[in-house]
Amino acid sequence: MNARLVDLELQVRAMAPSRAAAAEQLAFLELGPDEIALLRQVHAPLQARQQAIVTAFYEHLQTVPALRAMLADPQVYARLQSAQAEYFRALTAGDYGADYVLHRVRVGVVHQQIGLEPQWYIGAYRKYLSALAPLLQALLADRPELYLPTYDALLKVVCFDMSLALDTYMQSGRRELRDSEERFRAAFGQAAVGLAELSVEGRWLRANRKLQEIVGYSEAELQALNFRDITPDHEWRADEEAVARLVAGEMDHYSREKRYRRKDGHIVWVKVTVALMHAGTRDASVVAVVEDIARRKQYEEELRHLASHDPLTGLANRNLMLDRLSQAIAFAHRAGRHVAVMFIDLDRFKNINDSLGHDAGDQVIIEVGRRLARNIREGDTVARVGGDEFVVLLSDVARDDEVAALAAKMLAALSLPIIVHGQELAPVGSIGISLYPRDGADSRDLLRNADAAMYRAKELGRGNFQFYAEEMNARTLDRLKLEGGLRRALQRDEFELYYQSQVELSSGRIVGMEALLRWNPPGGAVVLPGDFIPIAEETGLIVPIGEWVLRQACAQQVAWREAGLRDVRVAVNLSARQFKQQDLARLVAQVLAETGCRPQSLELEITESVIMERPEQATAMLQTLSDMGVHLSIDDFGTGYSSLTYLKRFPIQTLKIDRSFVADLINDADDAAIVCAVIALAHTMGLSVIAEGVETEAQLDYLRAQHCDQLQGYYFSRPLPAAQVAALLAA
Ligand SMILES: Nc1nc2c(ncn2[C@@H]2O[C@H](COP(=O)(O)O[C@H]3[C@@H](O)[C@H](n4cnc5c(=O)[nH]c(N)nc54)O[C@@H]3COP(=O)(O)O)[C@@H](O)[C@H]2O)c(=O)[nH]1
């Protein structure tokens, strides 16, 4: 027997009345041995008519559309007909014991399971009785006095059958209800979402396990509470209004996201979907499906945070800063207050990135962000708006001096040492400040003007703060114009090299020419490198410009030589960015090859500060250049902090004393001492020394007395165009 049949049989046995109950029922129906005997008498002749009766019975069933559909399957039809034949056989067989009872109950269960409604069942009994009445009458025609008792006996058996069948239906109904309640209880209890039933006044009536987990209260604890007790900040008003609309029939359910306060005090986000049960009755209650959406809310919050914050520092990003600035302006406008915008740019941050790597740069940025944030009040904002650029918004400011004091405090905080990768760094920042409403009516103007003030702070030597002033915009515009002009200068051939002679003290002969760049913009005066090299350096334009200088200077050296003039060395200045170019050595080799200039006729001047920025890398680069035979000198010597250890290792030939020391040599004992020390040091290390900026005979005499090797300065010659230099060399 398969599992379904076993289950069926178990159900049948469970539903069948006990022997005693069946006997009691038969007694109540007054079906005794006499009646049974009467039925047995007609049993055999009735069996002969069985087929006709069963067929007629089924034809009758087919007249009902619902039953016809149920009997459409031929297999089902054949099985039911065979079961019906057996039913018919047992009806008058006279044995109404346990097997009979089980058979009748089984038929009832099967019919109930296939969905046959009881009304068709009772109609079927009526059909049997109607069909059998004339038959019995015919069979008992010769003994008509037996017809009524026999029919009455048959009626009792059919009533017995009917009671068994109806009992089966009722029991099945009860069982289904019980099963469904159990299923509901299990589903309610184990559901993966929170489920609760509440009174329309908001008292908790039932709460499943998941809901108890979400709110941290047991069901019993909840039953002593109203939902308002665990809903924060009067959020419950919205729930109450919605439930009132449910009760009024204005909607059949509602969903909303809300918060509960857990038993442990934490707030948890949930989505509740609420419907009314038993609407319109005194038993009306509210069913709530409660989903824990804390995760989703957290993701949403994270996404919101990501869209408005800088991922490295966690500070506000530009978007959030602009938003807060607009709000602050609106507030200040209403309240007649001021807003301050501070634009902060780290000075030489690129050097940290280049020399210690991006990881170190990141650490510095994070620490700078922390330091700025530590110095502001609640309600103010620190935002990171670029690589090393920050904006601080002071949303409610009364006076300038308040802002100035804070800017000074921030600069001091910034410059405290940071240890990164074992190196001590002291970040320096330049701060530009604009104030609403004085320096701009909207965010755009305030930021632009704070930026201009920041550039001014940089121009004034970095590490300071500047308030915006009208003329700064003009300066910014000039700077932009200059940058635009520089970009076009190369193509338009607006650059020119001037040369300044370097004189050997012992012989008085010109031994070198320093190439000094000049820019002749169309229609304008000559621009000196001090006014455009820093911008070229910042914008990267220095790389192509520097390449042009190198090529031009080498070509000029060859031209002078080939013109039969003195074979002097040409000195070219290398900027910081050029010196850090990976392919500098390759470029120098290529230019030497292209122009025919000999390596020993080229001198490269690199400033002390550029070399000392990354001495290890500088040593390698200097070595490569030196191996090529190029002459190397350290420019502006004395202005940086050269380590003697490194100095010894650098493959250089010359130290060039900065002209600032030479300028006051005669009047300033300190400068004189420095010059003497540099000359002595260079000679000890086997290097030659050149002093630049020599303007007077007194300076010349002093340097001669100190055995300086070479001199350069206006005393001998100002920087001159190449053509005039040719005359000088010829002379
Ligand atoms: N990367 C590059 N830098 C360059 C290039 N050309 C020039 N420069 C650097 O610009 C700075 C300013 O140069 P410049 O205005 O040309 O000034 C030079 C001389 O004119 C000046 N000088 C020389 N003698 C005297 C003097 O007796 N008195 C006095 N007041 N000034 C004098 O000194 C400048 C040369 O300096 P240095 O290079 O240190 O020898 C300057 O730093 C240039 O290096 C270029 O092509 N690329």
Automatic annotation (TrEMBL):
Residues 479-731 form the EAL domain. It catalyses: 3',3'-c-di-GMP + H2O = 5'-phosphoguanylyl(3'->5')guanosine + H(+). SMART domains: EAL, GGDEF, PAC, PAS. InterPro entries: Biofilm_reg_signaling, EAL_dom, EAL_sf, GGDEF_dom, Globin-like_sf, Globin-sensor_dom, Globin/Proto, Nucleotide_cyclase. SUPFAM superfamilies: EAL domain-like, Globin-like, Nucleotide cyclase, PYP-like sensor domain (PAS domain). Residues 254-305 form the PAC domain. GO terms for molecular function: cyclic-guanylate-specific phosphodiesterase activity; heme binding; oxygen binding. Residues 180-222 form the PAS domain. Residues 337-470 form the GGDEF domain. Pfam families: EAL, GGDEF, PAS_3, Protoglobin. One of its GO terms (biological process) is cellular response to nitric oxide. It comes from the Bacteria. PANTHER family: BIOFILM ARCHITECTURE MAINTENANCE PROTEIN MBAA, DIGUANYLATE CYCLASE DGCP. NCBIfam families: GGDEF (TIGR00254), sensory_box (TIGR00229). This is Diguanylate cyclase DosC. The lineage of its organism: Bacteria, Pseudomonadati, Pseudomonadota, Betaproteobacteria, Burkholderiales.
